Amino acid sequence: MNRKTWPSPIPKALLLLLPLLLFALSTAGQVRQPKRYARDSKRLAERKKLEKAASDTLPLYGGTYVGADLYGIGAHLFGSDTKSGEVQIDVNLKNRFFPVVEAGYAQTETASEYGTLYKSRGPYFRLGLNYKIKYKNPSESHLYVGLRYGFAPFKYDVESIPIVDDLFGEAPGNPNLSDDIWGGSVPFRVEGASGKAQWAEIVFGLRVQVWKNFLMGWSLRYKQRLGNDGLATAPPAYIPGFGENKKSAVGITYSVVYKLPL
Questions:
Q1: Alpha-carbon dihedral sign for residues 147, 92, 141, 53
Q2: CB atoms < 10 A from the CB of 27, how many?
Q3: Which residues are CB-contacts of 224 (< 8 A; sequence separation ≥ 6)?
Q4: Which of 56, 58, 74, 238 is most enclosed, with most CB atoms within 10 A?
Q5: Nearest to 158 by CA among 229, 109, 107
Q6: Stronger pLDDT, 187 or 69, i.e. the higher one
Q7: pLDDT at position 160, please?
Q8: Quick one: three-class SS letters along the chain?
């Protein structure tokens, strides 16, 4: 007679305890994870608190800066058809935000390849804001990005240029400006026409402290025209503060800046 054998009670007990052991391990891991997360969260909260305290120690008003752009004057001395001058005022708020007002005057006189003489002159204005990239650094030297809204009311002249005969001294007119129906040259002259334009700018710049309250800096500007008004028969070729009358333009400024004593 064969005797029925039963399995050993030890493996059976291990099989029963294995799920309990796995559950305990998983529970322990779940308990340890929140503790570690809680420590990390506490450290993060403490760091944010210190950063906020450091930011709160900065005064709201950090100074006023007055500057002048030298690029327009320098470009004219080196042969540019345009003369321009510009002043700028900005205010330091929390060493982070710099509201800016810029105002200038520009004039140009240039002739196109088709024999048309353009003259333009008038003021221009810009309003905007600069943002200091590393605002926690107390140094006056810094990089910044900014936005501008520009507006210019101006006057301009447009005139056809006659071609002078060197032999007989006559001016038969400009063959580039001919009447398609009647033939011959079509001279015209517009003086004192009114124009206005508005545009937006994206600015990237650098300002460096050179000595005490004196700073120098440059900025690179991408300009997008928003609107332009002028005579339909003789639109302006140049917009003060913007540049050539196109949809977009790129500009440069090079400024000397003085920080007013606090």
A1: negative
A2: 10
A3: 199, 200, 201, 247, 248
A4: 238
A5: 109
A6: 69
A7: 79
A8: CCCCCCCCHHHHHHHHHHHHHHHHHHHHHHHHHHHHHHHHHHHHHHHHHHHHHHHHHCCCEEEEEEEEECHHHHHHHCCCCEEEEEEEEEEEECCCEEEEEEEEEEEEEEECCCCEEEEEEEEEEEEEEEEECCCCCCCCCEEEEEEEEEEEEEEEEEEECCCCCCCCCCCCCCCCCECCCCCCECCCEEEEEEEEEEEEEEEEEEEEEEECCEEEEEEEEEEEEEEEECCCCCCCCEECCCEECCCEEEEEEEEEEEECCC
Write down the pLDDT at residue 116: 83
Q: Tens of pLDDT along 30-78?
A: 445 455 666 677 777 776 666 565 556 789 999 999 999 999 999 989 8
Q: What is the mean pLDDT of the chain?
A: 82
pLDDT at position 2 is 45
Distance CA 232, CA 195 (A): 11
Q: How many residues does the chain have?
A: 262
Please, which pLDDT band fits residue 189 given cuts at 50, 70 and 90? confident
Rg of the chain taking only CA atoms, in angstroms? 36
